[in-house]
Amino acid sequence: MAAGRRSELVLHINAEAHRLTLDHRTTLLDALREHLGLTGAKKGCDHGQCGACTVLVDGRRANSCLLLAVAQGGRRITTVEGLADGERLHPLQEAFIERDAFQCGYCTPGQLCSAVGMLAEAADGFPSHVTPPTAASGTPVTLTGDEIRERMSGNLCRCGAYPRIVDAVREAGAEAGTATWTHGRPPGRGAAS
């Protein structure tokens, strides 16, 4: 391969700098999985339609199968491996476990990264298709079940664990103060929690 088709770059992934020399056609997903051994993001459709490869780029969710790695220099990339704080799981990871929001687990890393990004988008006041037109612009969006389903619709689950995923996202969002429950406390949660 000609030298002009490869570039040396530094990718900032999960708060660590990684120096790589990559073919210009290498996707971020392939760089993560094949060059860095970060296999949490999955290659599902490889066309940006299933969400299994979702990661966070500068805090916003993105399908890593559609991004060229050489274009990600200087950006902060977070994969599912970077969500936990040492041994302490991210609140969404805890909620997914508690709410049994996965079956085969293939889509779970993408669902988790997407949910983290989605909660931030809602907190920042980004409306979705189902956000009422009367909602004040720029204010946090109330995360009802419909809001969560709409915002997570780009992440497919072959097993159909959607109701549990919605419960887990709503629970984590409520505990973080970025979502509200429309029917009292989260199901299955005691008064002491």
UniProtKB/TrEMBL annotation:
What is the annotated signal peptide range for this record?
none
InterPro entries recorded for this chain? 2Fe-2S-bd, 2Fe-2S-bd_dom_sf, 2Fe-2S_ferredoxin-like_sf, 2Fe-2S_ferredoxin-type, 2Fe2S_fd_BS, Aldehyde_Oxdr_Iron-Sulfur, Beta-grasp_dom_sf
Q: Which residues form the 2Fe-2S ferredoxin-type domain?
A: 7-83
Q: Which UniProt keywords apply?
A: Iron, Metal-binding, Oxidoreductase
Q: Name one Pfam family in it.
A: Fer2
Task: Enumerate the SUPFAM superfamilies for this protein.
Answer: 2Fe-2S ferredoxin-like, CO dehydrogenase ISP C-domain like
- In terms of superkingdom, the source organism counts as Bacteria
PANTHER family attached to this UniProt entry: OXIDOREDUCTASE WITH IRON-SULFUR SUBUNIT, OXIDOREDUCTASE, IRON-SULPHUR BINDING SUBUNIT-RELATED-RELATED
Q: What is this protein called?
A: 2Fe-2S iron-sulfur cluster-binding protein
